Amino acid sequence: MTDRKKLILKWRIDSSPLAGLLDFEVGLFRPEDALGVARLVYEHYGELHPFDYVYNPDEIARLFSSGQQYAVVARSVNGVVLGMIGMYRCAPHPRIFELAQLMVLNSQRGRGIASLLWRRAINELPEVIGAVSIFGEAVCTHAFSQKMCQETGMLFCGLVVDSIPARAYVSEKFQGERTSLILCSKVLKDTPHHVYLPACYHAPYKTYCEHFNIKRNIVLSAPCALPSVTVFELIEFQIAHSIKVIIHSIGHDLPQILCDCENKTGGEGIVQVVFNLGDNNSIQGVETLRRYGYYLGGFLPLWFNSDGILMQKRRDRPSFSKIKTFNHGAFQAKRMVQEDYDALQISQTQP
After folding, report:
1. CB 41 within 8 A of CB 52
2. Three-class SS of residue 261?
3. N or C, which end of the chain has less CB nearby within 10 Å?
4. 317: DSSP letter
């Protein structure tokens, strides 16, 4: 029996529907909400959430009291958790937070709870937590999250294609085997800086800077001698067959690291690699990945205090035709990524 199964049994976590619609209030997470949050996760993901801790109310309460995570919760007058949305530290820069985990009980949907939670979180939490930027991933299967991003000032900056298995969302009816995510961000306090970027990405990067109204100086520099060892961290989502590699400094062993990650994710999975554009050697890193079939995923404002660039690869051909965009910004992000993928395929077929 897995650890998460033991937790589900221990805490008697189930998805029994509530009877009727309940009056509710919205406020910041409280420790006594932890069990309700675990039950909310179970209804939404079943046993397929990427992390075990979400089935452990004690650990949920600890993390939310540690300053690593924050949440806005909708609860009934007698304390039943009906919905939540969280903000989580998500980048090497400690003041960048991801707006994520928006969930509402199936029996309480259609009442505007999700919109209310989203607006309260993005309007109130950044000041409370001192965020310089809010990051988000909007699904490409329905309009709601893309619409809410646009309405609350989040701008689209990339696309991770076929990011997660559709089966991971047991409460949703998604078509296809995997679903894609549109990347978005809301820069609250910018820091202008120099960036090092291969020439093939100068045009889309300049468009991104204009879109976000941020100032960057693209520096052309000669490649530097690389050390032997890459300094990196892995974020592995085993259930999703997905690995994200955060590169802090590039070494000669980067191709072997990529090979190991691709073998781990298998034929179904996806590898994402993020480089620091404030690092002179990022040019070599990105060019190396392109030789190995990686294409653009997007730009990440202030990810390392300087911007990041995300590259991605999956063995199967990306399912661009199945990706739904519901506004111009999301469509432009999709087009930027698809054009780079197409250009890479042409370059690899030429002698």
Report:
1. no
2. helix
3. C
4. P
342 and 200, same domain (yes or no): yes
- Same domain for 329 and 229: yes
Same domain? For 277 and 208 the reply is yes
Percent of the chain with pLDDT strictly greater than 70: 96
CA distance 347 to 247: 25
The residues that bridge with 158 in the sheet, in sequence order, are 183, 298
Q: What are phi and psi of 70, to 5 degrees?
A: -140, 155
**Of 166, 187, 208, which residue constitutes the final position of a domain?**
187
Nearest-CA neighbor of 178 among 125, 140, 205? 140
Structure tokens belonging to residue 189: 């306090």
The DSSP 8-state label assigned to residue 55 in this structure reads G
| Percent of the chain whose predicted confidence (pLDDT) is above 90 | 81
Provide, for the chain, the percentages of residues in helix, strand and coil under a 3-state DSSP scheme, each rounded to the nearest 5: 35, 30, 35
The whole domain housing 339 covers: 193-349
Task: Tell me the chain's radius of gyration from C-alpha atoms.
Answer: 21
Q: Which residue has the tokens 């304390």?
A: 79
176 with 106, same domain: the answer is yes
CA distance 246 to 256: 15
Q: How far is CA 310 from the centre of its chain?
A: 11
d(CA 95, CA 84): 21
Q: Which residues pair with 181 in a beta bridge?
A: 139, 160
Global pTM value: 0.93
- Selection from 95, 83, 38, 92 nearest residue 61 by Cα: 38
Task: Specify whether the CB–CB gap between 26 and 72 falls below 8 A.
Answer: yes
**Residue 153: which CATH number?**
3.40.630.30
Over residues 182-230, the pLDDT tens digits come to 999 999 999 999 999 999 999 999 999 999 999 999 998 777 889 999 9
Q: What is the dihedral sign for C-alpha 110, 116, 122, 126?
A: negative
Both tokens of residue 297?
A: 């995923």
